[in-house]
């Protein structure tokens, strides 16, 4: 593939309406091509975090009293610019995070829609603003997750200090650039780049921060929850989990395989709602596995910007290593690897991995753990009741974020909608019947 030349970006913090830098920097690289830097980003220290919180705090009085129309105008401007620049921003997102270009453009469009939806929300609903809200986000959805948190906070009249995952500093910078031009008063929105240990921890500890909106791993989420609880501030937490897809004997095999490939391997499985447990009734098991193997062999894993790529690279080296270790550990525990599961080389140096499919048992570690990669297991179910029980079992005891069922039986579909213990979020709970044969219950990402 011809390498396009993109100059590395210079990524700064956005504090009190202006760009500012730090003595320490880091580099974000393209996971499809490790020889291509995306940008050099500033890494804040605790003093920079405090300066951002101070500026947000100083801006809050004016912003909390700003009329709904003013808030709506700013949010709408952000949403419109995201939408208008979807191709260019999608390209940046694909280069920095490793999603395929169509997946990345979809994410930009979604982020734009979220800002516009909250522009409406500002006009139609009034909620009590809290003050300075810390927004802390992971690398998996560099625009969609920050969009939901930032738009919700701004629409209610809060001020924001945004701390993205370091790996996607370029996307965060691009979003801050758009927000900075939307007409918000200086200090209402701030971006601080850098590590979780320094920037994230300091944000949660700063006493002017009145609420934390966090998405990330269970481990980090637990420490954010502890620190927030110690200060008795509001916290909105989205952490790990994984989804399940049940395939019953009466399902259409090709529909089931479409749902399983998209659910388990779409976005490289790097979403907490990925269907990494494929629970298959005995009578269809052989046909389903054969069809899965055929489809998996035809998938093209390559550079995220290459036309025809179905799956881009894993986003970063530690996630790739974790995926490979998970597969190795599962084999040791007795699971049977029937496809992929290894790192592969392509024309460019990148974190490419062949999606893995394993035959496993419910009690195995791989079935219980949040994988967050292109790794799925097939579990055997005796009948619908057994399948539902397997889908509802989670290691943490929390409901699964998403669950699906492939069947042609309306009776089972109806029962599943009522009895699947999948997660429900007040803002994103979704129950859809996409096709007569597939029911999905849960959240969208
Ligand atoms: P992570 O927990 O390592 O980091 C998330 C954010 O927290 C980053 O910005 C990080 O810098 C920051 N952080 C790290 N230490 C911190 C600390 N001590 N205090 C405050 N902030 C700190 O997660 P990640 O590796 O970026 O993302 C992958 C994880 O996110 C997966 O575990 C996945 O399940 C989860 N995730 C959940 C959802 C959801 O909606 N529930 C969506 C996407 C990803």
UniProtKB/TrEMBL annotation:
Database matches in Pfam families: Aldedh
Biased amino acid composition, Basic residues: 419-430
Region (Disordered): 419-445
Extent of Polar residues compositional bias: 435-445
Record keyword Oxidoreductase present: yes
Positions of the C2H2-type domain: 402-425
InterPro entries per record: Ald_DH/histidinol_DH, Ald_DH_C, Ald_DH_N, Aldehyde_DH_dom, Znf_C2H2_type
Presence of the UniProt keyword Calcium in the record: no
Gene3D superfamilies the UniProt entry points to: Aldehyde Dehydrogenase, Chain A, domain 1, Aldehyde Dehydrogenase, Chain A, domain 2
Molecular function per GO: oxidoreductase activity, acting on the aldehyde or oxo group of donors, NAD or NADP as acceptor
Domain of life, source organism: Bacteria
Keywords attached to this entry: Oxidoreductase
Designated name of the protein: Succinate semialdehyde dehydrogenase
Organism per entry: Caballeronia catudaia
Lineage: Bacteria, Pseudomonadati, Pseudomonadota, Betaproteobacteria, Burkholderiales
């Amino acid at each position: 593939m011809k390498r396009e030349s993109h100059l590395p970006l210079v990524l700064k913090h956005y504090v009190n309406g202006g760009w500012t830098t730090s003595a320490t920097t880091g580099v974000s690289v393209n996971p499809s091509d490790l020889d291509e830097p995306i940008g050099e980003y500033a890494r804040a220290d605790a003093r920079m975090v405090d300066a951002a919180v101070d500026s947000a705090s100083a801006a809050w009085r004016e912003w909390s009293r700003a009329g709904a129309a003013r808030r709506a105008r700013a949010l709408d401007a952000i949403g419109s610019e995201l939408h208008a620049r979807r191709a260019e921003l999608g390209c940046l997102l694909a280069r920095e995070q490793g999603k395929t270009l169509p997946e990345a453009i979809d994410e930009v469009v979604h982020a734009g829609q979220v800002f516009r939806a909250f522009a409406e929300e500002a006009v139609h609903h009034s909620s009590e603003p809290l003050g300075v809200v810390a927004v802390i986000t992971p690398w998996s959805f560099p625009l969609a997750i920050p969009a939901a948190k930032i738009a919700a906070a701004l629409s209610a009249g809060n001020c924001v200090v945004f701390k993205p995952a370091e790996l996607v500093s370029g996307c965060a910078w691009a979003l801050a650039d758009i927000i900075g031009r939307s007409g918000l008063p200086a200090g209402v929105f701030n971006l601080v780049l850098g590590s979780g240990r320094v920037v994230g921890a300091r944000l949660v500890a700063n006493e002017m921060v009145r609420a934390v909106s966090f998405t990330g791993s269970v481990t980090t989420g637990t420490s954010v929850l502890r620190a927030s609880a110690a200060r008795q501030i509001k916290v909105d937490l989205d952490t790990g989990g994984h989804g399940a897809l049940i395939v019953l004997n009466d399902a259409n095999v090709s529909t089931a395989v479409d749902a399983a490939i998209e659910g388990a391997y779409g976005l490289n499985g790097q979403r907490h709602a990925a269907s990494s447990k494929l629970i298959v009734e005995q009578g269809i098991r052989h046909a389903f596995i054969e069809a899965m193997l055929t489809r998996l062999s035809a998938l093209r894993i390559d550079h995220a910007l290459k036309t025809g790529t179905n799956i881009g690279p894993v986003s970063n080296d530690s996630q790739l290593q974790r995926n490979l270790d998970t597969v190795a550990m599962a084999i040791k525990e007795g699971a049977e690897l029937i496809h992929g599961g290894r790192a592969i080389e392509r024309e460019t140096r990148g974190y490419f991995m062949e999606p893995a499919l394993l035959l496993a048992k419910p009690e195995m570690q791989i079935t219980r753990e949040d994988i967050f990669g292109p790794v799925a297991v097939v579990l055997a179910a005796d009948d619908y009741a057994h399948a539902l029980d397997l889908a509802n079992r989670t290691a943490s005891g929390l409901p699964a974020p998403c669950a699906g069922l492939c069947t042609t039986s309306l009776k089972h579909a109806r029962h599943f909608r009522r009895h699947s213990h999948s997660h429900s979020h007040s803002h994103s709970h979704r129950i859809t019947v996409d096709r007569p044969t597939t029911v999905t219950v849960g959240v969208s990402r």
